[in-house]
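Write out the bound-state structure for biotin.
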Amino acid sequence: MLKDDIIRELEENRGVPLSGQYLADKYSVSRNAVWKTINQLKKSGYEIISGHNSGYYLAEENDIISEQGIRTALPEEDKALKIKVYDVIDSTNNEAKRMLISENIDRMLLVANQQTRGRGRLGRSFYSPADSGIYMSLIYRIPGGVKNPMMITMAAAVAVVRAIEKLTDIKPGIKWVNDIFVGDRKVCGILTEAVTDLETGMAENIVVGIGINVRKEDFPEELSNIASSLYVEDITRNRIIAGVVSNLLELFDTFDAAAFMPEYISHNIVVGKRVGYERAVKASGEADGSGINSTEYVKTIGVVKKVCDDGSLLVVSEDGTEDKIFTGEIKMGRNA
Ligand code: BTN
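---
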């Protein structure tokens, strides 16, 4: 489609004017067809500068998410990735899971400019307004099934941190398990879901959903003290998405926890912090007469001693006991 070709040309030549004649010759269309397409793109929000006799180019601040823009920013080895971009969708994770029900898909990226039902961990929602964030889900198959879902999510956190560090001057931190922080505010959340094949019973497909606040302001009241944005001016969302997804593919393709865990551990902001967490307590069925053994979770306060190589968290509780936490969430600071 001419529209897609022109978007790709503009993305690949940001700041460099391309003449109508050049585009017409290259795609064997009339200059009038080029002109009409450029006008359509301008109407749909692209900031295309058309100087007198100098040709068309994309303004530096143009920040529309597009398949062509993401692909242009991907490294050579990832250029063939399947990519789908939505202006509005309920949730890219939901869409990925819907797709997996009807199709056999691997290595596909879904991205939205806005989500109407963005989902977070533990049943929460994820604030996903238009034009100011990144909402992306990668569908990835792990032959033989997912052995340690926690490590997948940790690899995803490392992928985001690496992309932010490469593209900006920001020094992000990781709050165990997989929230990305700048200073004391969350700028990114990750929701990894495994999808089970009902015929084989294997959880071979994973959906890694990542939400990044890039230029979001006016957070809802309940988030105003805990969430923030990267607030980068000169980096497009397409480039951040491409950076994150290429890191994800590299980390997943060569899955080697021993190689990425030191980076995960060194970025953690939780060590030495006072945190609230839930301690798992085994309740014996004999003690209460029910005969059924169960696990209860008791709210506890402690100080994080370290993030262990297996991804768990070692916390020294106020009563002096050491707890190893594998799942759930910790609350820091005033929320502990
Ligand atoms: C969290 O912070 O609890 C996780 C947030 C994950 C949000 C992303 S945005 C893209 C993908 N689609 C969703 O509905 N959720 C994830």
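---
Residues 219 and 227 are 7 Å apart (CA to CA).
DSSP finds nine helices and 14 strands in the chain.
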